[in-house]
Write a structure and sequence with these properties.
- This protein is α+β, with helices and mostly antiparallel strands.
- It contains five helices and eight strands, in the order E-E-E-E-E-E-H-H-E-H-H-E-H.
- The longest helix is centred in the C-terminal third of the chain and has 29 residues.
- It is rod-shaped and about 100 Å long.
Length: 209
Amino acid sequence: MSNDRGTLGVVPEGGTERIVARPGRCANHPGVVQAAACARCGRPLCLSCAVPVRGAVFGPECLPLVLVDVPVQDHPPAFVLPRGDALAALGFGLVVALSIFPWSKFGDASGILEAWTRHWSLLAVSGATVGLVLAVAFWTRPRDPRLEASLYLVLAITVGWAAYLHRQHPPPLSSPSFVPLVAMAGAALSAVAAAMKAAALFRARWAGP
């Protein structure tokens, strides 16, 4: 038996009636062209009836049954927020900026940009440059927090120790300026950034399931 529209048929089945859609038409909207088929019952669906769920398409009749099967997570996965990158960039950037000023008086490394000459200051500003590049990269595209914290700590110790050695052992016939002390403070900021990132990682692990 066909209805007046000629798009649906009613087929008796075990004392009940099952609606059969016209080929190429939506089972719920006979006047709309079929766009997909339900992955559970196979009923033809139009665009408004087709609901994508986990890579498959389901109709409104089967959707509640499918959603019931979705596993519920008792403990959502822990996510470590990228912390400390801005502080690391500030600390390393300060040392790089200090490379413009004299690190010594009355001799080598006593002029503008002389910190890039062959002495302990060169190791300090070179390590700070690498740290600044990594801090910006990790800030925009976070990586493994353990790797980030380790690199920040190693570079901060390198920069701070090199600045300390430059102050304790300035170039011949010269005396240190105040710049190495400020560079040591910048290295300390980067070390704090490494500690912040490590602390965030440990908190995430303790809070995990």
